[in-house]
Amino acid sequence: MTLNVLVSDNLVSIRFTGSDRLLSLCRYVDLHGDEITGARLLPRSEAKALLGWRVGGSYWPGAFANGWFTTPGQRGQLQLWDVYRDDEVLVIDTTRPKPSRIVLQHPDRERLVERINAVANRIADLNGRGERLRRYL
User: Which residue in 84, 77, 136 sits closest to 109, CA to CA?
Assistant: First the structure.
């Protein structure tokens, strides 16, 4: 697995390197805090229940899912997967149609969930404060 996830104050940057770049047909994804609706850990089987048809990338049942997949019941929305055999995966939901969901296998996924949710919540708090200020002006 060759994947880097960098989390800053208002940006989550996912970089695919090596074979993951080839298998998933993706070099990187940058998500701004306002594009992230949440991050959580899910059992791989539960995340896979929402996996649709492969659009581009690679898939071998029980071994790996890398690349772009449709989302059942959500026309025009694609998921980006980079998962091998771990039982638990990191799921990042976004407001984008492509990717509407990013599913990753990462050794530090527990800490990443906290940090990604902190970025999303920080932006939501700032947006909420801005909205409240506009009401008073």
Answer: 84
Angle value at C-alpha 114, between 95 and 134, nearest 5 degrees: 50
| CA distance to 32, 33, 53, per residue, from 88 (Å) | 25, 24, 21
Residue 128 host element (H or E): helix 109-136
pLDDT at 93: 96
List the beta bridge partners of residue 69. 54, 79
Where do we find the tokens 């690349």? 67
CA nearest neighbour of 25 among 95, 98, 92 = 98
Q: What does the block give as tokens for 20?
A: 């993951």
Predicted confidence (pLDDT) per residue in 50-69, tens digit: 999 999 999 998 899 999 99
